[in-house]
Amino acid sequence: MGVLAYCDFQQRRPKREVFMFFTFLLIFLVVFLGAIWRGEFWHVLQGSYQLRYLIYLLLLFIYADPFKYEGDFSLSLKAVLILIFFEATVFSLVKSEQRLTSGNYGVNSLGHLMAAGTAFLVLQAGGLSKKIGNYFLALVLILAVLATATRFSLVALFSAFSMIYILKRGKLSSFFFGLSILIGMFVFFISFVPAGESMWEGILTIGQNVDDPSAISVTPESSSMITRLRLWWATLEMIGDHPWLGIGPGVWAFLKVNYGVEFESILDPHQDLLSYLVSYGVVLGGVFFISVFILPIFKVGKLRGLYSGSLWGWVGIILVLLFAGATNAVTWKHQISALAYFSSLMVVFWNSRFVGYRV
C-alpha cells in the first residue's frame, strides 16, 4: 500500500488510463465474487497476487511518474540479479546439485529470469563504461543460464533478440531475415544437450501418441515433455469445465488430482497462457494476457521513433518471458510477475515522457 504515497489523485488523467485501471479492478472483483460462489475465497485470496501487483502498478503509472526513477530501478534490478545468482550458487553447492538451482526459483524459472536479465542488460542504452559493465554482468548471467541447463531460456533469449531486430527495422526484408535467424536459433538450441538429453529424440518419442501421454514411452529425452503434455491436457479439461470465470488463481494445484495430475511437487500448468485462461476464464484471462504481453509489442510499433535505447531493455524482458512462457508458467512466480508487469507498463506508458498524454 506504500505505492499510494507516490500517487497524486487530484490530477486529471486521460479517460483511457482510468478505463484501463477500472478494467482490471473489475476483473479483480469478478474473480473474487466467483471465488466466494465456489467456496474458494481463501485460495483465490492467496493466489491473486498477479492482479494485486498489476492494479498497484497501474495506480503508480497513472497517478505518479515512475519514469523519474527508471535509473534507480534499473540499478536495483542489476543488484537483485547479482544477489539471485549468488544465492543460487551457494544453494547449489550446499545441496550438491548437478544443475544451478535456486531455493526460491528452482531451475527453470531461474534460467528464464537470468535470460530476461541478460536481454535487459544487452539492450539497455548508456555510455561506454555503463555498456562494459552491462555486458560483463550479461556474460555472467548467460553462464548462469547454461549452468541451469534450461534450453528454452536460450531459445527465448535469442527469439527475443530476433523479434527486436524485426521491430526496430519494420521492413519486410528485415522481417524475413529476423525470422530466419529465429528459426535457425531455435533449431540450434533445441539440439543443445547440456543435460545429455536430445530434444529431437524427445519430439520423435512423444510423436508416438501425442493424444495419450500415458501411452508414450518414457525416456530421459521425453520425460519432461510427457509431463507437460499431461499438465496441458488436464488444464484444457479444466478450461472446458470452467470457461467463463475460470477456476480462480491459486486453485489449480488443488484441482489437479481430479484431472489425473499426480505430481505432488507441480503447482502450475507449466504454460503461461493456459495458466491465465484456466485461472481467470477465457475472456478475462485472455484480456489479462494480451494486455501484459501483446499490447506492449504493438505499442512499440506505434511509437515511430519516440523512444530512446533504454526502451528496448524493457521490451527485451517482456519478449523473453513471453517466449519462455510457452513451456513454463513463468509469471506465476511473485517476483517475476511483478517484473513482467512493470516492464509491460513501462512500454505501454512510454510516450508520456515525450507528449502530454499517454496511450
Share of β-strand residues: under 5%
Largest sheet: none
Task: State the order of secondary-structure elements, H for helix, E for strand.
Answer: HHHHHHHHHHHHHHH
Tell me the number of helical segments per DSSP (H or I, 4 or more residues long).
Answer: 15
Q: State the helical fraction.
A: 55-70%
Which class of secondary structure composition applies to the elements?
mainly alpha
List the uncertain runs: 354-359
Q: How many β-strands, per DSSP?
A: 0
- Give the overall silhouette: globular
**In whole angstroms, how far apart are the ends?**
26 Å
Radius of gyration, whole Å: 21 Å
Mean pLDDT: 81
Write the layout of secondary structure elements.
Blueprint: H1 15-38, H2 41-47, H3 49-63, H4 70-95, H5 108-123, H6 128-148, H7 151-169, H8 172-190, H9 199-206, H10 223-241, H11 252-255, H12 272-280, H13 282-303, H14 311-324, H15 334-348
Helix pairs in contact: 1-2, 1-3, 3-15, 4-5, 5-6, 5-7, 5-14, 7-8, 7-14, 10-12, 12-13, 13-14, 13-15, 14-15
Task: Tell me about this structure.
Helices cover 66% and strands 0% of the residues. By secondary structure, the chain is mostly helical. The protein has a domain at 1-64 and 232-317 and 328-359. The model is unreliable at 354-359 (pLDDT under 50).
Summarize the structure.
The chain contains 15 helices and no strands. It is mainly α and 359 residues long. It has a domain of 182 residues.
Features:
single chain; 359 residues; mainly alpha; 0% strand; disordered C terminus
